[in-house]
Amino acid sequence: VITGSADKTTDMAPGREVTTRRRRPWRAVEADTPRVTRGAQARLGVFMTVPLVAMVTVFLLLPLTSAVYYTFVDFNGFDPSPPWIGVSNFTELARDADAWAAFENNVVWIVVGTSAPIVFGLGLALLVWNVRRGSVLYRVAFFLPFVLPQVAVGVVWGWIYEPSRGWLNRFLEAVGLSSLARGWLGDPDVALYAVLGTAVWATVGFVFVVFLSALRNVDMNLVDAARLDGANAFQRLYHIVLPQIMPVFLMVTTLTLLGGFSVFDIVFVMTGGGPAGATEVLGTYAYSSAFQLNRISYGTALALVITVISVPFAVWMNRLQRRLSLQGTGA
Amino acid sequence: MNHQTVAGSGTRRRLLLTGKHLLLLGLSALMLFPLVLTVSTALKSSHDVKVNPFGLFSSFSTENLVEAWTVGDFGSYVVNSFLLSVPSTLLVVVLSTMAGYAFARLPFPGRGLLFYLVVLGLLVPFFTYMIPLYFQLRSMGMLDSLIGINLVLASTGLSFGTFFMRAFFSDLPVEVEQAARIDGASEWQIFQKIMLPLVTSGMGALGVFTFLQNWNNFLVPLLYVPSGEYRPLTTGLYLFLGGRSIDIGPLAAGTLITILPVVVLFVALHRQVTQGFLSGAVKG
Q1: Are the C-beta atoms of A119 and B229 separated by less than 8 Å?
Q2: Is the pLDDT of residue B215 over 90?
Q3: ipTM computed for the complex
């Protein structure tokens, strides 16, 4: 009906063809397809998505529904019809000082664990930006920590943080800062930051690679023009480069931020939430409530609260990013 | 590229570039230091581990590796890791390719609604429903079962996989599909003979990425393999850490065994792996 014209407009803008990827090409033909084809497509479409739907229903929707149900009952793991207790899990949560302490640790994790990789990752990416030879080597070296299993990462960093023979303390002694040396994972004042340091080490490479690929798409003519106009390196970065990689910037922020809500493995392995709850985050607290203290409903309520806090962030950031990326393509 | 306009700065530029490389090499060494430390400690003699566990390459012996492999049971953990990662990865690739094609190119009733289901899978973190899922699996008799764990692992990767493959199919030109249809190809033939060969690189990237995710997964086996019958490397290493954290030598060897396949796979296929992570970021 109007589909033909939609196809034409993209054809009529020859300058755009190279840069703008045509989004959803099937839209243009859908209304044109004969009824027989549409019937066949519908049948195949259903057939191809049935396994996905079955899997998602059984292993996501069903447990997610149970999760909501669990939070309103007092489930002990065996009782098939547990007593209904209403919102008392949530009122207890609101008064639980340990939960609030864990939440605070998550906030620290989100702030530091998002900003530090972005600063270091962007710095590294700017450094490698116009390096041609050997840039593959750097990409592999920096990215490798990100793909390692976090259990292994936790084990090795435990040795680096070891009080008497660990490399961190030995390094501090060598440079005359032995007053700073301590048992990094055993000291409640610094344990959270020590674990965070490990997480930052593991994340920097990812942020670096994402920024590097974004930088390689930056319009160099604009940067050169700004240089000729007398803009210094910082001005070029702030006014020319950063706006062009803004969508990627927001995307990386979203991802690391969301990672900060659901952090579990690395804390669980390195400190188990200790010493004295100093590194307890909501994830480890939910786990120990449910599986060590057998407070299944309370643990589920905790996990659900984390999700309810984090999902709006994900949706909001995703929208923002989509709007910006549309602006970026000129659409 | 050559956006240097100041004349006569050739040598200065070269010097700057050399300095940059030196700095980057130093930073790379710093980033890779924990790996070097793992290799060094894993290959020490047991006597050396006791006196100087973290000194770099001060002795050589394979006794730690042998002990981890046999006494530490890492030999069977490796087998279990493959048993848990390979089928679940294949499942993710096959089902995601099918669903990705349907969402990208086939108008069918309920497509919009079903797509929300996929989005839901991307937004809801696993640990939101990990506790009820434990009791669900228990009542289904799927705890400690290869089928159960593989299905759970696959389900955690399906939403991303569908998004990923959908993007590949969306980028294919309409003309290919139309030409095949005019030639009398059925919808299934169009998918299988025409479109599928065009996205094999995407399937490969998804496969490598998913395999790494499943290999590295810690929570799923921690929760759903309570008896330890199919304990993979990640939870095996954790158990070993808890039980014998003083045995640094075998622990380092176990760590090395756990990360070695990941390191080899990543170095060999870093392009595909990075692509997976990047697409997960950009298109998710």
Answers
A1: no
A2: yes
A3: 0.87
